[in-house]
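pls design
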């Protein structure tokens, strides 16, 4: 199934590759690093040790609540546009967060604590905005997409391949994050921001819209050799 052997015009191998890489992209746009290592990010941003824990917890609460946005927008604007606006906002706020952390760190080194706290607070706000945007966009679509593009007879296995992609992306990033934060500090956020930018042309070129389409229509869509 992974390579579509004997699948004919169903092109199940192509669909498997799409769901695997969509899940890998989901992790590399930064959510695993931001959620698991949010205390590290907040420490780099200059928060006090006693403040980091509850701020990280509050970030998780707002992240959870933001998932409700998809309930009202996903079928209205479709899967692709949900991913587009998520990638745009997430990329921008991660670039800004990295820059604010850098300026705040420089101010702290120069002894200007007030200025450092101001920029650190701005960086924290950007991290909150990132996780909320992710919850409203990229959190949902990669888990929904496999159920919409596979024929009924292989839908369960197709969804399982999506979980494989999530495991690869999450495991890979979780192992690399401590190394990246140790080596390049806030510049790790620039890498995540760049990954958000890269996802836009990838989704545009490779991922057909599945919103409001039947499984039969999706089969006809993937029957084309040009997709």
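designed seq:
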């Amino acid at each position: 199934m992974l390579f579509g052997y004997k699948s004919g015009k169903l092109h199940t191998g192509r669909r498997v590759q799409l769901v695997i890489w969509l899940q890998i992209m989901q992790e590399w746009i930064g959510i695993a690093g931001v959620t698991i290592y949010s205390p590290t990010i907040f420490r780099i941003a200059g928060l006090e040790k006693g403040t980091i824990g509850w701020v990280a917890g509050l970030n998780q609460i707002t992240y959870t609540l933001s998932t409700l946005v998809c309930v009202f927008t996903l079928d209205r604007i479709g899967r692709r546009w949900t991913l587009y606006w998520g990638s745009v906002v997430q990329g921008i706020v991660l670039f800004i967060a990295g820059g604010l952390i850098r300026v705040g760190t420089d101010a702290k080194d120069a002894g200007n604590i007030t200025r450092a706290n101001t920029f650190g607070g701005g960086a924290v706000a950007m991290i909150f905005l990132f996780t909320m945007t992710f919850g409203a966009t990229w959190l949902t679509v990669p888990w929904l997409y496999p159920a919409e593009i596979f024929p009924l007879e292989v839908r369960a296995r197709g969804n399982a391949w999506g979980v494989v992609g999530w495991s690869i992306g999450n495991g890979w990033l979780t192992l690399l994050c401590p190394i990246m934060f140790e080596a390049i500090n806030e510049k790790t956020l620039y890498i995540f921001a760049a990954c958000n930018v890269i996802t836009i042309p990838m989704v545009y070129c490779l991922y057909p819209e599945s919103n409001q389409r039947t499984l039969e229509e999706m089969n006809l869509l993937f029957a084309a050799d040009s997709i």
